[in-house]
Specification:
Helix content is 33%, strand content 14%. The termini are far apart. Strands 3-8-7-4-6-5 form a 6-stranded parallel beta sheet, with helices on both faces. A two-stranded parallel ribbon has the order 1-2. The radius of gyration is 21 Å and the shape is globular. The longest helix has 17 residues. By secondary structure, the protein is α/β, with parallel strands linked by helices.
Length: 304
């Protein structure tokens, strides 16, 4: 489907009479190569300007091509230029640092290794970061208890002045078994992450909107709706919340992505939180320990 859409864009670019003098493209780290190849075709002759905005740590889809291979030449002074913004400003230091560490300390794939420089100097940039509370990781064998805890915490945040629309609950897959079913005990119960959340929120009279329920709900996002948003990590692209709850950490690592892409998916989910981040798992897995270690490492870093 992505390739076919790219072919359509290229066809339009070759025959279009009215072309653009400037194109701004966000989230370009997730673009299919044919989508990128179509962009120069949509540009008018001089003057023209193409700006690609991306966060390579957010690359959650497989990609193994360079911009040159896609027909986009990024050069030095006098031609196209590449600029790296120093840090993300949406989230706090306590969220940015462990989320970034998960990616930079993962096993890099070819694209990440060849085109991205490792960022080892986050400590030197801390003066530009907002500070806040450290993310929390809760492990509980009872998913219903996790959902009740989330609903109760949301009710408390409401009393503290949060709007329901300030809050998002993210999940990777709607139901388990997760990526590695062979690791689960044979008597494991299948978990429906969304059903448990909906029941707990309803019991607390908390309004919610299941954004990733179907294609229609994905199209009906209303930023003025005062309701908690429940959605997948993928469908949350472009959204942000003051407080985020991530359920189902035991689903990581997901078998459909490599190690670096798994780290990027969690990075994406964590960075949707502007101020408060709470994460939950039914099992104390190796990946959960990795997340906890990243958070503890941030806590042990001296403030700049």
């Amino acid at each position: 489907m992505s390739a076919l859409l790219g072919q359509d864009l290229q066809r339009i670019g070759k025959v279009a009479v009215d072309k653009y003098h400037a194109i701004l493209m966000d989230e370009s780290q997730d673009f299919h190569p044919r989508w990128l190849s179509a962009l120069p075709l949509l540009l008018a002759e001089e003057p023209n300007f193409l700006l690609l905005a991306e966060d390579p740590k957010q690359k959650i889809y497989p990609r193994n091509f360079s911009y040159i291979q896609a027909g986009i030449h990024v050069r030095g002074a006098g031609g196209c230029r590449s600029h790296t913004l120093p840090i993300g400003y949406r989230s706090t230091r306590e969220i940015i640092i462990p989320a970034s560490r998960l990616v930079t300390k993962s096993r890099w794939d070819t694209f990440y290794r060849d085109y991205i420089e490792q960022e080892d100097n986050l400590e030197a940039k801390e003066n530009a970061m907002r500070t806040g509370q450290a993310p929390t990781v809760t492990v509980s064998a009872s998913y219903s208890a996790i959902c009740q805890h989330i609903a109760s915490d949301i009710a408390g945040k409401r009393k503290d002045g949060y709007a329901f629309s300030d809050i998002g609950i993210l999940y990777l897959v709607r139901a388990t078994p997760p990526a590695s079913p062979h690791e689960l005990p044979l008597n494991s119960v299948k978990i429906n992450y969304v059903a448990g959340l909906r029941a707990a929120l309803t019991a607390e009279a908390i309004p919610y909107f299941w954004q990733a329920e179907n294609q229609e709900t994905k199209k009906s996002e209303d930023l003025l709706r005062d309701a908690v948003t429940i959605t997948t990590i993928f469908s949350a692209k472009g959204l942000e919340f003051e407080a985020v709850y991530i359920v189902g950490l035991a689903c990581f690592p997901w078998h459909k992505r490599n190690e670096r892409e798994n780290a990027s998916m969690l990075y994406v989910a964590m960075m949707y939180a502007k101020s408060a981040l709470s994460m939950y798992s039914k099992r104390d897995t190796g990946y959960v320990k990795k997340i906890q270690a990243a958070i503890e490492g941030m806590k042990n870093m001296p403030l700049a």
